[in-house]
Write a structure and sequence with these properties.
Layout (H helix, E strand, L loop, with lengths): L1 H19 L3 E5 L5 E5 L8 E6 L8 E7 L2 E6 L2 E6 L3 E5 L8 E4 L4 E5 L10 E5 L4 E3 L3 E2 L3 E5 L4 E5 L3 E4 L3
Antiparallel strand pairs: 1-4, 1-7, 2-3, 4-5, 5-6, 8-11, 8-15, 9-10, 9-14, 12-13, 13-14
């Protein structure tokens, strides 16, 4: 019985770690258009930033983890905690057995759409080695493309490996 419980505890921990390794973009769902990002997962902690609503079909931050009713998020150069009730999410990994893109190095860059000022593919965020980026994507010569309602995200083909199946 003890081995059985240890096995299921290890399985649960592995499932939690697996879930944290999927690239997930987040955005505010509150009525006022943003949610505070706090230093610690409590309303008593100082506000260190804001997570804004969906814009052009793309969230404004990246999910880094969860604890209870709080989401650890990165917005720009700030990483902190937002109350999960007001955080929506999107990702490009469905887990349905398709080939998936996996980051091959720490700080793998993910770029966003070209800007109006002509700058090509500015940095959106980075992800750590082993992060599952997507199993729904398109590709061109240099990039895999994650499609949104209006804008796209791009990852260089040289920064990921394609892994078959689940």
């Amino acid at each position: 019985m003890k081995r059985f419980l240890v096995f299921f505890a290890a399985l649960a921990m592995g499932a939690t770690l697996w879930a944290q390794q999927v690239f997930t973009v987040v955005y505010a769902t509150s009525d006022d258009g943003f949610v505070n990002v706090r230093q610690r997962p409590t309303t008593k902690a100082p506000v260190i930033g804001k997570l804004y609503m969906f814009s052009h079909g793309l969230g404004s931050g990246v999910l880094r983890g969860q604890s209870g009713s709080w989401s650890k998020v990165s917005v720009g150069n700030v990483t902190g905690w937002a109350y999960s009730k007001y955080v929506g999410s999107q990702n490009w990994y469905r887990g349905q057995g398709h080939d998936k893109l996996v980051a091959v190095r720490d700080n793998t860059p993910i770029y966003c759409e070209s800007m109006e000022d002509g700058s090509k593919h500015p940095l959106f965020t980075t992800v750590s080695k082993g992060t599952i980026i997507a199993d729904e994507y398109q590709e061109d010569e240099q990039y895999y493309i994650l499609t949104t309602a209006h804008d796209n995200l791009f990852v260089k083909k040289s920064d990921v490996k394609v892994v078959s199946g689940i």
